[in-house]
Amino acid sequence: MKILVINSGSSSLKFQVIDSETERVMAKGVCERIGIDGIFTYKTDSGTSVKEPVAMADHKQAVDTILKTLTDQERGVLEDFSQIDVIGHRLVHGGEKFTGSVVVTDEVIQAMTECNDLAPLHNPANLVGVDACRQLMPDTLMVGVFDTAFNQTMEPKAFLYGLPYQYYEQYKIRRYGFHGISHKYVSGRAAEFMGQDIKRVKTIVCHLGNGASICAVKYGKVVDNSMGFTPLEGLVMGTRCGDVDPGALEFLAKKENLDFQQVMTILNQESGVLGISKNLSSDFRELKDAQIKYNEKASLAREIFAYKVAKYVGSYAAAMNGVDNIVFTAGVGENDSEIREEICEYLGFLGIAIDEVMNREQSEAVKISTWDSKVNVLVIRTNEELEIAREAAAVARQVGSGKR
Ligand code: ADP
C-alpha cells in the first residue's frame, strides 16, 4: 500500500509518501508559511530536490500543491493520486475517546472537535489538514493516528492529579501524556533491535527534543508519561518549564502583575533551558558551545536538564519495579552524547555502565551500554511518520480495503 502521511500544523503541513510493504520513503516534504507567502520543500528517493516559493493561501492549496507535485511527470513519484491507498493523519489530542488509530469519519471529526479545548493550538490545525484532504480526495481512506492514544493504558493512579475528583468527572482534567507515536515506535524498535519480545520487557523511552518527555512502557503498554494535561508538564524543555509548584506561579503573577495568559506565555515560551540560560538559547548545540566557553548559565541549564531526566528515569524504574531498556531518542537524545553520558552517570545504582566509544557512534539504532551493564541503554532514531504509515496500513487492512 502507498500511504500519504500528513502532519498538519497551523501554518505548515509536513508530508511523506511511504510504501508500506517495503517501508521505503518515496517522497517527503513540507509546505511552510501557509496563508503567508508559501514555501514548498520536496525530496524524492530518486534524488529530486526542490525548495521554492509557492503561493498557498490555505491548507487546501497546500494539499493541492503536494498532490500535483507527487503526480508531476518530472518530479513526481506517482502516476495518479488514486495510487495513494490511505492517508494517515497525525492527530495530537484524542482525549479519552481514542485509544488507538481510527478511520476518520464525520463522527470522529465531531469527537475530535469536542477535544479542541484540550489542545487549542494543535487539534484545530490538524483538522484543517484532514478537511483539505477530504475535499481533494473524497474517495481515499483517511486514518487518524493520535499522539495521546498509546498513553491511554495509564491507570488512574498514574493519570489522576491530586485535585478534587469532580474536576476529572466534569472536565476530564487528568494527565494524558504526549509523544505517544514516537514512544510506541521507539519502544517497539528497541525490542526488535535487541531480539526481545515487547510483551516481556520494561522500557523507558527518553524522547529528548525541543519538547521532551519520558515514557515507561511495561510489556508493550504505557505505565506513565512525564507530560500531563498539556505538554508543559514534566522535564525542563527547550522553552517549556516542566514541573513547577503552582504556588510559585501565583506568587510570580502578583509580583509582576501578570494575568493567566501572560504567565502561560512565560511557562511555554520563555522558560526551560532558554530561560535558565538567561535567553542565550533553547538549542542544546548552542548551549554546548557556550558551555565550552565557560558560560555558567549554559552549563547550569544543561545540568538541570540532565538531572531532571535522571530523576524521571529513576522514578519510572520504580513505577515498573525494574527496567530492561533505556532508550534515548529525538534531536537531543539522538545526537548529544555528553548529555547521555551525564544522565547515565546518575543511573549507576541501576547497574548501568556506558561504553564511551559506542556512545559516540551515529546510526539508526545502537546499543551504548557495556556488555556487563545490568540495563541495556540504546540510542534509536525516532520515526513518527513510519509509525503513522504502519498504523494507517493496519487500519486499512482491518477495514478490508484502501479505498472507501
Ligand atoms: P522537536 O521535534 O521537539 O522540535 P527535535 O527532536 O527536532 O525537536 O530536536 C530539536 C533539538 O535537538 C534542537 O533544539 C537541538 O537542541 C537538538 N539537537 C539537534 N542536533 C543536536 C546535536 N548534534 N547536539 C545536541 N543537540 C542537538
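The pocket of adenosine-5'-diphosphate is lined by residues 209-211, 238, 283-285, 330-332, 335-336 (CB under 6 Å).
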